[in-house]
Design a protein that fits this description.
Elements (H helix, E strand, L loop, with lengths): L9 E10 L3 H12 L3 E7 L4 E8 L2 E8 L5 H9 L2 E9 L2 H10 L10 E2 L5 E5 L8 E6 L1
Parallel strand pairs: 1-4, 5-8
Antiparallel strand pairs: 1-5, 2-3, 3-4, 6-7, 7-8
This protein binds carboxymethyldethia coenzyme *A and cobalt (II) ion.
């Protein structure tokens, strides 16, 4: 008799996010060197970021730059410099995934799912409880 493996919470990698000082320069670099083009641009005031999403197959590269000094991305650039800021994992239901993280003792940064960019529903998990990487749960 075989035991069915329960389905995982992550359905796909939604995006890999990079903190950059100069959004236009980063967009030009990805276009000129890799031929990657912007699929969507947005200012997310609640997060204090301007972002560009470059589509790669079914996932995105998310280039992020701060719009104000108290933005989480401004703090990141100041402290750690440019680099990978977070990973967005696509999930079928953000509320269900967030509840699973909480049940496992994870330190969540959002008590409930909230709006993200591109019309998504998201929740963040603190990097100190995810082996060092800020995690975003993304429901399309
Ligand atoms: N990745 C990994 N480690 C990070 C980090 C990141 N992105 N940001 C901060 N840290 C580390 C710091 O280096 C620091 O480590 P040490 O204590 O070892 O020095 C620690 O986490 C700081 O933790 P903190 O004081 O609790 O938090 P900060 O004020 O530095 O803020 C964080 C960090 C993750 C809580 C904050 O950035 C946050 O709430 N992020 C969620 C929202 C967000 O990032 N929005 C922008 C993206 C929006 C989008 O994707 O569209
Ligand atoms: Co993101």
């Amino acid at each position: 008799m075989t035991t069915a493996t329960p389905p995982g919470l992550f359905t796909e990698i939604d995006h890999v996010a990079f903190a950059v000082n100069d959004l236009e320069a980063a967009i030009a670099y990805y276009r000129d060197v890799y031929g990657a083009t912007v699929d969507h641009r947005e200012v997310v005031e609640s997060d204090g970021v301007e972002e560009a999403l470059l589509k790669v197959a079914e996932s995105y590269i998310q280039l992020l730059t701060p719009t104000r000094p108290d933005s989480p991305v401004a703090k990141y650039l100041e402290k750690r410099g440019e680099g990978i800021h977070h990973i967005g994992y696509r999930v079928a239901d953000c509320g269900v995934a967030l509840a699973a993280v909480k049940a496992a003792g994870g330190r969540v940064l959002d008590e409930a799912p909230r709006p993200g960019s591109r019309g998504t529903t998201v929740a963040f998990i603190h990097p100190k409880t995810t082996f060092g990487t800020l995690v975003e749960l993304v429901q399309e």
